[in-house]
Amino acid sequence: MEGVRVLEVAQFTFVPAAGAILADWGADVIKVEHPVRGDTQRGFINMGGFQLDPNRHPLIEHPNRGKRSVGIDVSTPGGQEVLYEIAKTADVFLTNYMPAQRQKNKFDIEHIRAVNPNIIYARGSAYGDKGAERDTGGFDGTAFWTRSGVGHALTPEEIGGALPQGIPAFGDSIGGMNIAGGISAALFHRERTGEAVELDVSLLSTAWWAAGASVTQGMETGETMRSLMPGTTASVNPFMANYLTSDGGTINLCIVSPTGYIRDAFEHLGLPELADDPRFCDVMPLIQNAEAGVQLIAEAIRSRPFEYWRQHLKTMKGQWAPFQSLIDLASDEQAIDNDMIVEVEASDGGAPFKVVRGPVQFNHEPLETTRAPQASEHTEIVLMELGMDWDRIEALKNAGAIA
C-alpha cells in the first residue's frame, strides 16, 4: 500500500481498525481527531472491568498503530477547508460517523467527491447505509453480538439468560479487516477501470458473515444452533469434544473425520486396546458407541495434568488444541514463531508496548509499525507537507479550527 493515502474521520475501534490494517500494509493513514478531546475512546478508563492506563491504552494502540494524527474541528468552516485540502491528496476516505453528522459537518460523499472525484469513499456502520435503521447507531456489543444472533448462539440455553460479550471490540476488529479488504478491492478496481466506488461494511453484516453457515442453516431449516453447557455434547463422534484434565485444564479433540486416525488417537490417549475393540475400531461402530467412547476418553484424559497432554499430543496425527486463555497466547510458541506479536515504542517512554499483528502476512515478513499517535501529534507536519504556510497554520490554530 505504499503510496496510498487514507484520510480517516472515525472514532472507537470499528473503522479505525481498518485504518490500522491499511497502515500495517504501508498506507499513509491520516487520522482526524477533535482538536480538544481527540478520539472519544482516548477517554475510556475501563475495559472489561479492568482499569486502563491512558498512556498505555490497548483500545488506542490496537486500532491506531502506524497512523499520523491531525487535530481538526470539522464543524468549523476553517476545519472543513483543511479537511478538503487533505482529501484532495487522498486515495481513500474512511469514516464511521452517522449520516446526519456527515451531512452537518460536510464530509459526506458528495462533499468529499466535490474536491476529489477519484476518491474511494468507505463507510462503516452498525446496521448498514440503507433502510429504516440507517440512522441508528450501535457498537459491536449491540450490532455484532446481540442483534445478530451471535450472542444467542454462543449462550447455552440452560443458563436461562444471555452471555455478555466477553471481548471488547471483538466485532469491531473483524469488521475493520473486512473494510480493509473491501478498500483493497476498490483500489484494484480503480486501477483497472478508473472508477472510484463507495463501499459499506456494517457490524451486523460482519456478524452474519462470521456466522454465515449457521445463518444459512437457520434460513433453510428454521432451526438454530446453540452452544452446549460444559460436560455435554451433541456429537456422535467421541473424538470431537472438550475433555477435562486432572488439574482442571481442558483439551479439545476435533478429529472431524476419524478415518485413518482411530488407532493413532487411541494410542496417544493411552487406550491402544480400543483400536482393536469392535465397538471403536471403525467409523460406523465408533459413531454407534459414541457415548461409551466419550466416557473412556474422559477417564483417560482426566488421569493426567494439562501440561502433560499439551506436550504428549503434539505427535498425534488427528486434530486437537489446548483450551487457552487470551493471556496464554502471549507465550504460545506457534504464535510467536509466526510473528503475531509486535512491539512498538510506548508513548510513556517505558517498556515497549505489545500489539497484535493483523491476520495477513506477506512473504513471511514480521510487521514493522509505529505506536499509535498522540492526539493531534502530526498536525503541523501534515499541513506543511500540503504546502500550507506557517501563518495560515497559526491563524487556523488561533481560530480553534485545528490543533
Brief account:
The protein has about 400 residues and is of the alpha/beta class. It contains 17 helices and 13 strands. About 35% of the residues lie in helices and about 15% in strands.
What does this structure look like?
The chain has 17 helices and 13 strands. The protein is of the alpha/beta class and 403 residues long. A six-stranded parallel beta sheet has the order 5-2-1-6-7-8, with helices on both faces. It is elongated. The two termini are 28 Å apart. The model has no long low-confidence stretch (mean pLDDT 96). The longest helix is centred in the middle third of the chain and has 24 residues, at 170-193.
Strand and helix map with partners:
Blueprint (H helix, E strand, L loop, with lengths): L4 E5 L6 H9 L3 E6 L12 E2 L2 E2 L6 H7 L3 E4 L5 H12 L3 E4 L3 H6 L4 H7 L4 E6 L14 H7 L3 H4 L16 H24 L4 E5 H8 L1 H10 L18 E5 L5 E5 L7 H7 L14 H6 L1 H12 L4 H7 L7 E3 L10 H5 L3 E4 L8 E4 L22 H7 L4 H9 L5
Helix pairs in contact: 1-8, 6-9
List keywords for this structure.
single chain; 403 residues; alpha/beta; 6-stranded parallel sheet; 3-stranded antiparallel sheet; 17 helices; 36% helix; elongated
How many helices does DSSP assign? 17
Report how far apart the termini are: 28 Å
Largest sheet: 6 strands, parallel
Low-confidence stretches: none
Q: How many DSSP E strands?
A: 13
What gross morphology would you assign? elongated
Major sheet: arrangement of strands: 5-2-1-6-7-8
Strand content range? 5-15%
Percentage of residues assigned to helices? 25-40%
Secondary-structure element series: EHEEEHEHEHHEHHHEHHEEHHHHEHEEHH
> Which structural class matches the secondary elements?
alpha/beta
Radius of gyration equals 26 Å
